[in-house]
Amino acid sequence: MKKFKEIFQNKTFARLFLANFTQQMGSIIGLTAFMYYVLDRFTNQPVYATVTELMYSLPTIVVFFLVGVFADRLDRQKIAYYCNWISSFLSLLLIGVIMIGWMPLIFTILFIRSAVTKFFFPAEHGMVQGILKKDDYTTAAGLNQLVGSLFMLFGTALGIFAFRSVGIYGAILVDVVCLAFSGLLIRGCRIAEEVRLPNGRHKIKDLKVSFVLKEFKQGFTYVVKHKLLFSLIIGFFILGIVNGGITVMPVFYLKYKLAPETYEQLAAIIGVVTGSGILLGSVIATILVQKFKLYKLMIIGLAIPGIFIVLASLTNSIYTYIPLIFLATLSFPIINISLGGWMPSIVDPKMMGRVQGLINPLMMLSQSFILGFIAYSFPKFITIEAIYWIVGGSLLIVSIFYLMVLPKNVKEFEGTSQTSIKESKAL
């Protein structure tokens, strides 16, 4: 708690944190409400709900090579607040389009809005890296994980409450106000030019196609040549597999093995258990990262849920399954906070946007792959237990991989960093 108090004494970080919180809250309320609106209005056309989800994920493929370059070459602060204001305007426009009721236009607005929001996080992460001290990175990551856990636990309920109480238009209007307020908070921050423009001043007209592709390639090469960073990126890829598997595993396990008759009610209970586990794990992880080396926590944090997920596939009792899932989710924040706290420490601020711009599409790729594999293979070729073995086994494999490579890579990186510091002092 002392660390949290200290980090909020940085007024710029406090504003950015509140802006990020407000943006997430508005988006979750608005988008969750829209999903339930679609399910209610088009009960016999579930394809609309699926298309809605695609409108949130597909833009990543379209803009992934742009977001990092923009965050590194343009003003990060302007990118962040313009993203929120444009998204706020698009959400307001969505209200009018919903009144018209033409679904292709509605999906087009959702697609554009989602594409715009993809530019926000690389720019925001770059600014946070620049305004915090190195020792505060893990604390900031812990705070973000804690907020993410709260939204996981209560976000859907907030969206449903807004939809049922003020309707779809009122819920989206909440999104409009939250995004506009978030943009104002970021606009009011005083951020040094070297943080906003780490690579000097550029204009949008300077970012031609050939320049963007060259910059993207440079970012990709930077990741590949940076041994420690490349090892960590593998962790993000595996987290995509885990995230994809976890979205369907509990419901499938309940429906096809443990409780075919009552799986819907039990799925809701498991959702609360999962959110509670991640929330408690966030608090525990925030304490642990202050006491242990991050790479050691990551190795343990990957192994523990891997073991419990495999064990969960072996039980035939719901009373055993739920505690195992709780114990598995308890360790996920250790992975997220370790990765989130470590990344700003090892990435060159001039490359942060491009590195962040690579992570999201990589995770989406692995998540889409595992979901596609499950859709094609289950239950024709693989059992429900096999899905658990794949996800749990992936975590264990990466844990072993990190055990083999991280100690050496960390030692090499720290040695290189110390040499660079000595050379800078000599100059």
Description:
This is MFS transporter. It is found in: Cell membrane. It is a multi-pass membrane protein. The chain is mostly helical. It has two domains: 1-197, Up-down Bundle (Growth Hormone, Chain: A), CATH 1.20.1250; 205-427, MFS general substrate transporter like domains (Growth Hormone, Chain: A). The chain has helices at residues 2-7, 11-41, 47-57, 59-73, 76-100, 103-117, 120-131, 137-187, 193-196, 209-225, 227-258, 263-288, 294-312, 318-330, 332-346, 352-377, 384-426. α4 (59-73) crosses α10. The radius of gyration is 22 Å and the shape is globular.
Q: Indicate the overall shape.
A: globular
The biggest beta sheet is recorded as: none
The second-level CATH architecture of the largest domain is Up-down Bundle
Number of helices: 17
CATH class of the largest domain: Mainly Alpha
What would a concise description of this structure say?
The protein is mostly helical and 427 residues long. The chain has helices at 2-7, 11-41, 47-57, 59-73, 76-100, 103-117, 120-131, 137-187, 193-196, 209-225, 227-258, 263-288, 294-312, 318-330, 332-346, 352-377, 384-426.
